[in-house]
């Protein structure tokens, strides 16, 4: 009961007029971009270590929401919120002690959960409101990748250019891209585009003229089906140096075939994985909306 | 003081909704959220033997996704499909010959180095 009172006090003192989702995205009230990835949470067994690592690697800053039960921490870069961080003990036998979760904007969270069930997925956490954020659910797609869906109280952030230290891209690693594309298209209202790179099909999920994520085929016995967010950086080798110095690991080093050496995958000391990407070229990406 | 009490009461109401509104459980956000789910255990590690088609589609003209050889128009271009027409169900277009969408652009880097920028692109 104490934590309810603490949260009540916290929520009541928030500047609601200025920030409709103080624990969520910096949105525009009433405006939604269904299908956009609007929030990212790191669940980790060691929040202090995570803060030290990500602060050193990306320059992120952290603000504890001490009043909120669950010890939630907001993550920000110079220009605003990036996501959140929360403590979660590593379950016995778990391979890693940290996980990133990406949340997709949907117009109706209950409907999204129902769709997930109808199309072979499942519901990890039933739709529920979270004060200061909105309504969310955690779902699993038919092949096992976990993601969240959110309808933020304060609307979704507009599609403005992505800043350094912010999430720039996401990939879904899955054994069956076609099945996954159909699932997410139904859930997020995406258009599915299939091109070809290096003789392999390349599947993109897009809407509003903007590519939101890619789908890559993996060998499930080697790589778990999952979503991987990529952080925009200005220098991949320098970022990887910081990763190593801060106790992290380079899971996938840059290689020529991956955006000309401008993509890598890292793991934090607890095992939470993220991609990093440097956008090659000074000009904005063709076709991207503002 | 009375006003503060009212605001506190509203906050309490909101908190109640946050914890009783669904099948989530009795925590604010953390514990139940990631529950004892096999998500933590998984069937494999991350990112072993990844193919060369991960990451955002490249922005450079020579990149096959950014600019296909014929630079063809998208089938869902408004010219081909008037706005008044109801939008078709999401579909997979397997043609590699048309332009692919691009991600949101990266903001120009600030001068003076550093690894962070400012301005838009928020969430």
Detailed description of the structure:
- The complex is a heterodimer of chains A (290) and B (123).
- Chain A has 290 residues and is an alpha+beta fold.
- Chain A has helices at 2-13, 47-58, 109-118, 177-188, 236-245, and strands at 37-44, 61-65, 72-77, 80-87, 98-105, 122-130, 134-140, 146-152, 167-174, 191-197, 200-207, 210-217, 226-232, 249-252, 263-267, 273-277.
- Chain A folds into two domains: 2-152, 2,3-Dihydroxybiphenyl 1,2-Dioxygenase, domain 1; 167-277, 2,3-Dihydroxybiphenyl 1,2-Dioxygenase, domain 1 (Roll), CATH 3.10.180.
- Helix content of chain A is 19%, strand content 38%.
- In chain A, a hairpin with a 2-residue loop joins strand 3 and strand 4.
- The N and C termini of chain A lie far apart (45 Å).
- Mean pLDDT of chain A is 86; it is low at 1-18 and 283-290.
- With 123 residues, chain B is mostly helical.
- Chain B has helices spanning 2-20, 31-34, and one strand at 92-93.
- At the A-B interface, helix 1, strand 1, strand 4, strand 6 and strand 7 of A face helix 1, helix 2 and strand 1 of B.
Count of structural domains of chain A: 2
Please report the two chains with the greatest interface, counting residues with C-beta closer than 8 angstroms to the partner's C-beta: A-B, 143 and 84 residues
Note the beta-strand portion of chain A.
35-45%
Which second-level CATH architecture of the largest domain in chain A applies?
Answer: Roll
| Mean of residue pLDDT values of chain B | 50
Average pLDDT level of chain A: 86
Radius of gyration of chain B: 24 Å
**In order across it, which strands form the biggest sheet of chain A?**
2-3-4-1-5-8-7-6
Just give the CATH class of the largest domain in chain A. Answer: Alpha Beta
Number of helical segments with 4 or more residues of chain A: 5
CATH superfamily of the largest domain in chain A: 2,3-Dihydroxybiphenyl 1,2-Dioxygenase, domain 1
